[in-house]
Amino acid sequence: MAKITLKGNPVTTIGELPQIGSKAKDFTLVKTDLSAVSLADFAGSKLVLNIFPSIDTSTCATSVRKFNEKASSLANTKVLCISRDLPFAQNRFCGAEGLENVINLSDFRDGSFGKDYGLTITDGPLQGLHSRVVIVLDENGTVTHAEQVGDIVDEPNYETALAAL
Question: Annotated active-site positions, please?
Answer without folding.
Answer: 60
